Amino acid sequence: MSDPRSAELASTRTTTTCGVCDTRLPRDSNPTIIDSAYVCDDCMQNAIKPKFHAALDNERDYPARWSARIALSPDDYPGLLPESFRQMWHKRIREYNTPSAERLYCPHSVLRMSGEEPEVVPQPEQIAAPSGGNTGRCGAFLGARAVDTTIALVCEECAREVCRGCGEPLSSMSQHACSTASSAKSKSKCDEIEGLVRGTEFQICPGCSMGAELRDGCNAVWCETCVIYFCYICGVQAADDSDHWRKGSACPRYNAPGAADAQFDRDDDEDGGVEPDDDTGDEEEGNSELESDEDEDDPELEDGGGSGLIEEFQIAEDQPDQDVDAEQQPPGDGLNQSHDELGVQESAAAGPFVGAVPVFRDFREFLHWRLNNTPAPEDT
Predict the structure, then answer these.
(1) Are residues 182 and 106 in the same domain?
(2) Which of 153, 163, 330, 361 is packed most tightly, with the most Cβ within 10 A?
(3) Residue ranges making up the domain that contains 145
(4) Are 278 and 260 in contact (CB under 8 A)?
(5) Contacts of residue 41, Cβ cutoff 8 Å, sequence gap at least 6
(6) pLDDT tens digit string along 39-66?
(7) 356, 346 contact by CB (below 8 A)
């Protein structure tokens, strides 16, 4: 709730600026303070006051808000609105705080004359309604339904009684009993869609029990009566920005569950973020797979054919030690380079190779070179 304060706090400041219109206020002004912000009188009348009227007229605009986390109440600003408005406000808040499915409204007929307050219309069996006026339902909020049907509610607008159990109007001229037909009216308002598949062809609002149909679009359905979002698939109340439609849930954001085009909300780490991998482990695993693939693909290692490669490696291994860590020169024409550039020995040309044989650190390095350099055919 906001916390209005007196002018004493404002007078301690050398400069005061309105948090709505950003106008510099006189030092001796008496601005209203809402959430540590100063609001001038003009903005209270033109910006804040209309919020209360909108909330009183439409539940969708309730509560009146200063921000997403600060709700406003007319009780905090006694000079802004008259006492009559605050009385109507508290009645409306009582209505808003009652679940929609349990709200009871006066069903009695009233006569509305042009330019006059509504008048009670006599029952048809008593006297015909006067001409020149329009009849309509009173519609005043009475309270919540109750199991105890012996308690009658008296409408404050038309001063007539209503059964608290079924919501039917009561008359002193007849005895009332909650009939099966009357109970059926308050039980469900979706009789016209009976036989359809719930969650696919229709859904019932969890707040007011009204039926809803979704032809296409998002499965987060908005009920203007209850001022809530609910899931069209399962029928439970769920905020539009909740995790109800996250990946892994039973209810997709779009289309039907199990459908090929069902779409769920993406997790935060799927919006471009990728979990880091263990580079070391992957590299070792990749090297292991490389060796395995090379062993399987090389025909010379099958059926004992690998002995020839071992002999060739030993020939290269027996060559004089060379500085293998020395900086290599840019490659030239492969085996046609000078021996100094390759870092090899002339005498290492023995074996089935044509040209020079490089010096290797181990057999694995030799094997890798051997598999990528097919020996030239020997001259016959």
Answers:
(1) yes
(2) 163
(3) 100-187
(4) no
(5) 31, 32
(6) 999 999 999 999 999 999 988 788 888 9
(7) yes
